[in-house]
Specification:
Layout lengths: L1 E6 L5 H20 L5 H16 L1 E10 L2 E8 L9 H18 L3 E8 L10 H10 L6 E8 L16 E5 L6 E9 L3 E3 L4 E11 L7 E8 L5 E6 L3 E6 L5 E8 L13 E9 L3 E7 L6 H9 L4 E7 L22 H7 L6 E5 L9 H12 L3 E5 L22 E7 L6 E2 L33 E5 L5 E5 L5 E8 L2 E6 L5 H4 L8 H12 L9 E7 L2 E7 L8 E4 L5 E4 L2 E4 L2 E7 L4 E6 L4 E6 L18 H6 L4 E3 L6 E4 L7 E2 L2 E4 L5 E10 L3 H25 L1
Parallel strand pairs: 3-4, 3-5, 5-6, 6-33, 8-14, 15-16, 15-17, 17-18, 18-24, 34-36
Antiparallel strand pairs: 1-2, 2-37, 7-9, 9-12, 10-11, 10-13, 13-14, 19-21, 20-22, 22-23, 23-24, 25-26, 26-30, 27-28, 27-31, 29-30, 31-32, 35-36
Helix pairs in contact: 1-2, 2-11
Length: about 700
């Protein structure tokens, strides 16, 4: 119990100040007049002021509260390497034992895991949340049990007590790390992109090797081995093999003695884009659909179009000199012999053999396809005649054999069963409103179809009159070919009978032929959202096998995919960790990087208190290495150094809780007034006796 004197004025303080001033003036006047009772007047004034101030004694019943020591235990990924888990357990037991020896002291333990995503160790965020849960007046000390590597130093809270750090790790710890310091998000196909790599050793590394092995793998292919120097930036030029996302993995093997191999690999994802699509359009004669092809290709700013048109057939003899048949001489030899490999796609639009392109040129085009080129034939009646382009060296690559029959009657193009699963034609029917009778797609009719038979291996995606082949695709060697057995796709472009998805169909067709990854009919890829994978398998088959996913730690997970639309199978999977994942279904392989292959936790793995030093020094706290053995906890006065060799200090706070309060007046107000009156009478008598004596 404690007692203190408190005041409860009966009048406003301004009035009391005025009374006090009058009392002082009265006493001063009495002294000036040399009245012998001046001191009694002064006491009377004090008694009067005491009556007005109404003093009382306040008594409190207090209960002492315990001091609190906050211990934040870092259990992030970097604290789970080497022997740090055992060190953490030993240090935790040591702190518990020391706190148990302190009088009236409690221990609050806060466990901190990995941050969200790849945010690293949020040590100060965890400390802030822990301090917010406790009364600041009771916190006697704060201890961080960690390797000292944190990623939110800017969130350091106001510290009400000494801050200390118990650092895990060993003096001889070392680690090797692979760093990619410069990697673009996209690159142009055919142009080398330069990456900057560096392999560095951290901590007490053994004698540095001059060179270490490095492997480079693209899209999970067989790795290519190299030897690279340690501690130096390496400029690495890379040519992307294909369009779309290219996943490059760099890895250096783990060495005995290093802390972890999680930072020995790095993954870079670069989107390969084409600079310009080079297309050669060869039109055999002017017709209504020629302008459609030209407009379609010229509308795309990324397309470089070379259009070779035969406006006047050679058999037309009207006496016009040959040198006057064109404004400039068309460079046929240069296009079809010397620079044919520069084109991504060659389109023959109603072309017939008239001797303008010699067989040697056509034979060179067939070789161009075998080596990876693409040829699209949009055929008219000439494809079924004696001058058909099929009856040339192109016969070996074209996906349709003409029967010499040409049908001239109306029909609505249909997507075949295979076409519903193929990325070139899937979903086309949904791009137009259904017809009024509800049967088939809501497309306008075409009025010409060249009858063809399909060679082995070719795929019919669309059919025409009586289910005859209309759009046929095939792969030849490394290249691709397509045959559109009609020249009337332009009717859709003109909106005849409602038209149809002509532009989308031809765009997809051209991009499939140029091997754009998003239009591959057999594909396995992943669409990540955070740490959730949407695994997608596109196939022309009715079923697809399970997918095996290999995670960063080497664990395998087998997933079953469900068909969500014709030819498309999907599943969602929540991944347990960030890093590089490999997927395979036994036929196709894919790789995907979720976050960095080496998370932020493994950028710096050597234990250090460098980042924590400013916060600890500001509270006069200290560091202690767990590897040095147990520490002692001691009580120190506030403001004194709180750390020394083998010990850490806490500052007892002496906090308490008030259970009850009682207030007792010193004297009643009337008693003070009575005392003041008696003193006043005493002063009067004293001064009156003095005058009688004189």
């Amino acid at each position: 119990m404690t007692g203190t004197v408190i005041l409860d004025p009966l009048l406003p303080l301004l009035v009391i100040y005025a009374v006090a001033a009058l009392a002082v003036v009265g006493v001063a006047l009495a002294i000036w007049r040399r009245l012998p009772g001046w001191w009694l007047r002064g006491l009377a004034g004090l008694a009067l002021l005491a009556a007005l101030l109404n003093p009382a004694i306040q008594r409190e019943d207090r209960e002492a509260l315990s001091d609190i020591i906050v211990l934040v235990v870092d259990q992030s990924a970097s604290q789970r390497i080497s022997d740090r888990p055992e060190q953490t357990e030993a240090a935790l037991a040591n702190v518990r034992a020391e706190v148990a020896t302190l009088d009236n002291t409690e221990l609050r333990i806060v466990t901190l895991g990995d941050g969200e995503g790849d945010s690293g160790t949020q040590l100060m965020t965890g400390l802030s949340e822990a301090l917010a849960e406790e009364p600041q007046g009771r916190i006697a000390g704060i201890i961080l049990l960690s390797d000292g590597r944190l990623h939110d130093l800017e969130r350091t809270p106001a510290l009400p007590a000494p801050l200390h750090a118990l650092l895990t790790g060993q003096p001889e710890d070392w680690d090797r790390r692979l760093v990619v310091s410069n990697a673009p998000a996209f690159a142009i196909l055919g142009e080398p992109v330069t990456l900057t790599l560096r392999i560095e050793d951290q901590g007490a590394a053994p004698t540095a090797d001059a060179f270490v092995p490095l492997t480079i793998s693209i899209d999970g292919a067989a790795p290519l081995p190299f030897d690279v120097p340690v501690g130096q930036d390496i400029e690495l030029p890379v040519d992307l093999p294909h369009g779309g996302m290219n996943v490059l993995q760099f890895e250096t093997p783990a060495v005995d003695g290093e802390l972890t191999a999680r930072n020995n690999a790095a993954v870079v994802q670069i989107n390969g884009v084409r600079d310009r699509l080079r297309v050669l359009l060869v039109s055999g004669e002017p017709h209504a659909g020629e302008r459609t092809w030209r407009n379609l290709l010229k509308a795309d700013a990324a397309v470089d179009l070379v259009h070779f048109t035969i406006l006047r057939p050679p058999e037309k003899q009207d006496g016009v000199p040959v040198e006057e048949l064109s404004l400039i001489a068309f460079p046929t030899r240069e296009l079809f012999m010397e620079k044919i490999e520069d084109f991504d796609l060659i389109i023959f639009d109603r072309y017939r053999r008239r001797g303008i392109l010699p067989s040697l040129y056509l034979e060179n085009i067939a070789t161009y396809v075998q080596n990876g080129g693409a040829v699209l034939v949009s055929s008219g009646p000439e494809y079924g005649g004696a001058e058909s382009i099929f009856r040339s060296p192109l016969e070996t690559i074209l996906p349709g054999v003409p029967t010499a029959r040409v049908f001239e009657e109306g029909y609505v193009p249909q997507v075949s069963d295979l076409g519903e699963r193929h990325p070139v034609t899937e979903g086309l029917e949904a791009m137009s409103p259904p017809p009024e009778d509800g049967d088939g797609p809501g497309w306008g009719r075409w009025f010409r179809l060249v009858d063809t038979t399909v060679p082995e291996g070719a795929e019919v995606l669309m059919t025409g009159l009586d289910d005859r082949p209309l759009l046929t695709l095939n792969r030849v060697g490394e290249g691709r070919v397509a045959l559109l057995a009609s020249d009337q796709s332009w009717l859709w472009d003109r909106g005849y009978e409602g038209g149809g998805p002509q532009a989308e169909l031809l765009r997809r067709l051209a991009h499939w032929m140029m091997k754009e990854p998003e239009l591959e009919e057999e594909a396995l890829w992943v669409e990540p959202t955070g740490q959730t994978m949407r695994i997608i398998r596109r196939t022309l088959e009715e079923e697809t096998p399970d997918v095996t996913v290999t995670g960063p730690s080497g664990t395998e997970t087998v997933l079953t995919l469900e068909e969500v639309s014709p030819g498309r199978f999907e599943t969602l999977w929540e991944t347990p960790d960030v890093g590089l994942y490999r997927l395979t279904d036994g036929t196709l392989d894919s790789v995907i990087a979720l976050g960095p292959a080496a998370p932020k936790e493994f950028e710096q793995t050597i234990a250090s208190g460098e980042d924590l030093a400013p916060a600890i020094e500001s509270t006069r706290g200290g560091f202690a290495n767990v590897s040095d053995g147990d520490i002692d906890l001691r009580s120190v006065r506030e403001g004194r150094p709180a750390a020394g060799r083998g010990w850490l200090g806490i500052t007892p706070r002496g906090a308490y809780r008030t259970d009850s309060i009682s207030v007792t007046p010193v004297l009643p107000a009337w008693a003070f007034l009575l005392v003041a009156a008696l003193l006043t009478v005493g002063a009067w008598l004293r001064e009156g006796r003095g005058r009688t004596r004189r």
